[in-house]
Write a structure and sequence with these properties.
The protein has 5 helices and 3 strands. It is mainly alpha-helical and 174 residues long. Strands 1-2-3 form a 3-stranded antiparallel β-sheet. Helix 3 packs antiparallel against helix 4.
Length: 174
């Protein structure tokens, strides 16, 4: 019964990640089609606009030219994070943590696809007012997860909630 439930959870996680990645990829393809080689499109004049950018670095344009390092690190995350998701106890208390992992996986996968196939990540959201670095939907996923994670770890979860990480195996030690 437990294995059946875990398989169902993993299937739902995979489906959710795929849907979120599809949304990210669709918005990037729209950006390529409608924004590439064109002037920015103001949505709120002087505040927010759509502007095409090929980001060959990581978040906020840092570490330009490190494509294969980003690909390798992200590939490792795409293997490790589903395992962590699998290990999270199937109780309501960890629903927020599960949701956060889904969005983080989707954000990592969305930008991984771009880096792997194109050598850059397509970015297109730009806050002109604060001159914030141009970003995309996958970046939104990851940023929201980081903010939510800080909140959850500081105010929602207790240290004891994570004892499942350190739980002893039968006949083994920590």
């Amino acid at each position: 019964m437990k294995n059946r439930q875990k398989r169902k959870e993993m299937l739902l996680m995979g489906l959710a990640v795929c849907l979120l990645v599809a949304l990210d990829q669709a918005t990037k393809r729209l950006a390529v089609h409608y924004l590439k080689d064109r002037p920015p499109v103001p949505l709120i004049k002087g505040v927010f606009e759509l502007q095409y950018l090929e980001n060959r670095g990581m978040a906020f344009g840092l570490q330009q030219g490190g494509r294969w390092i980003f690909v390798a690190v992200t590939a490792a995350l795409l293997v490790i994070l589903p395992y962590i998701y699998y290990k999270i106890p199937s109780v309501r208390r960890f629903l927020y943590l599960r949701i956060a992992l889904v969005f983080f996986l989707a954000g990592a996968a969305g930008n991984f696809i771009d880096r792997l196939f194109y050598g850059y990540v397509v970015d297109f959201f730009y806050f002109v007012l604060i001159d914030f670095p141009i970003f995309n939907v996958a970046d939104v996923y990851v940023t929201l997860v980081m903010a939510a994670s800080v909140y959850l770890l500081m105010f929602y979860y207790q240290e004891d909630d994570f004892e499942w990480i350190f739980r002893k195996k039968k006949g083994g030690s920590v």
